[in-house]
Specification:
mainly alpha, 83% helix, 0% strand
């Protein structure tokens, strides 16, 4: 148990960071009401957060490329906790935005270094298992963090939700401080320019980044506004929306298990299925939602599984293509992933403002489909197995 404690704490940290990033999705209407802004403007909190992660991931990771992973992680978790205190105390929309930018700065470094740290502290350096555990933390954020945060926000206010996350981060700080061993970064002797040059000249990595930018934009075009979609288009009561959002998290755990078990033997099949599964679920969102709650629940499970399998599979590929520069390669992936989140939330907000909320699935699905087709013909044949 003691040997596994660092991985467990990193997984809980992944849960906490993902819960914080996703929380505004479940409380978008309440945040908008509190600051007397539209839902589309409140949605900019999601977009700006994601864009800041995209902007900061690479420069911050390069800046701290020689710092011991343990020390860097403690700084990251500490800044995350303090920034949540700022969210709780915010008295205006722009103060909340500023505090969220602080959280985004911590997030940008966390997901750049956490996967590599998880692999390093795992028994036997079991890459697929460690990465699945980290992504499972994100899945639990969808199952427990997002729905419970939504319920807590509806009962006590969204500020209480962010306050609880800040307290959890403070506890994680002390747990990681006591349990993490020193973890020097693998590329400690190389210059920042040499590290970056190795990553950006790797053609398969560039393909991964392009596919991710487009497919995640499509995914979050629909997913960022799934709460108002269910409420206004489908007509779901709030309790049912909370339960349906939890299904994404259940699917995330299933997807983590599937990837951990089958990716080593069937990597091409899993990546192909996840790349095409995402646009398929988006394109089916409106017609399936009209068919009833049970079909919509099944769609949400398949949608969540596809996103989880996609994320873990491509992180596996990144570490295979850049084993000694994984922190920088992962920072670019994290930045581009969040660029896709921000772009998707922005596109979704534009669609909603134009009165086309029922069609967000079609628009997001077509965006993701273009990336899936590119992956099928250009990247998947060149995968490193």
């Amino acid at each position: 148990m003691k040997k596994r404690l660092p991985l467990i704490l990193l997984t809980v940290a992944g849960f906490t960071f993902n819960t914080s990033e996703l929380m505004p999705i479940g409380l978008l209407s309440d945040i908008a009401d509190d600051f007397e802004v539209t839902e589309a403007r409140a949605g900019l909190i999601i977009s700006v957060y994601a864009w800041m992660v995209a902007l900061l991931s690479l420069p911050l990771t390069l800046w701290f490329a020689r710092m011991d992973f343990r020390r860097l992680m403690l700084w990251v978790v500490g800044i995350f906790a303090v920034s949540h205190l700022g969210s709780v105390l915010s008295t205006s929309y722009w103060q909340l935005m500023a505090s969220r930018i602080g959280v985004a700065a911590a997030h940008s470094v966390f997901w750049s270094i956490a996967p590599s740290m998880a692999v390093a502290v795992s028994p036997g350096h079991q890459r697929a298992t460690a990465l699945s555990a980290m992504v499972a933390g994100g899945g639990i954020a969808l199952i427990a963090g997002l729905p419970l945060g939504r319920v807590l926000g509806l009962v006590a206010g969204w500020r209480v939700t962010f306050g609880v996350l800040g307290m959890l981060a403070a506890l994680l700080f002390f747990g990681l401080r006591a349990s993490l061993p020193p973890l020097p970064q693998a590329a400690d002797g190389e210059s920042r320019g040499s590290i970056l040059r190795h990553v950006v000249t790797c053609r398969p990595l560039l393909m991964i980044y392009l596919i991710t930018a487009v497919i995640v934009t499509g995914h979050y075009t629909g997913y960022s506004y799934i709460e108002p979609f269910m409420y206004k288009v489908v007509g779901m009561p709030e309790q049912t929306i909370t339960l349906t959002l939890a299904l994404f998290g259940v699917a995330g755990l299933i997807g983590s298990w599937v990837t951990s078990r089958y990716f080593p033997r069937h990597p091409r099949s899993l990546i192909t299925i996840s790349c095409f599964g995402l646009p398929a679920m988006l394109l089916l969102l409106l017609p399936v939602s009209a068919a009833g709650l049970a079909p919509l629940a099944l769609l949400c499970i398949a949608w969540g599984m596809a996103m989880t399998v996609y994320n873990i599979s491509f992180q596996n590929e990144i570490i295979l293509f850049a084993p000694s520069h994984s922190a920088v390669a992962m920072s670019i992936y994290s930045g581009i992933f969040n660029l896709g989140i921000g772009s998707g939330a922005f596109v979704g907000g534009f669609v909603c403002d134009a009165g086309l909320m029922p069609h967000i699935g079609y628009i997001g699905g077509l965006i993701s489909l273009s990336a899936a087709i590119y992956a099928l013909f250009r990247f998947i044949p060149k995968m490193k197995i």
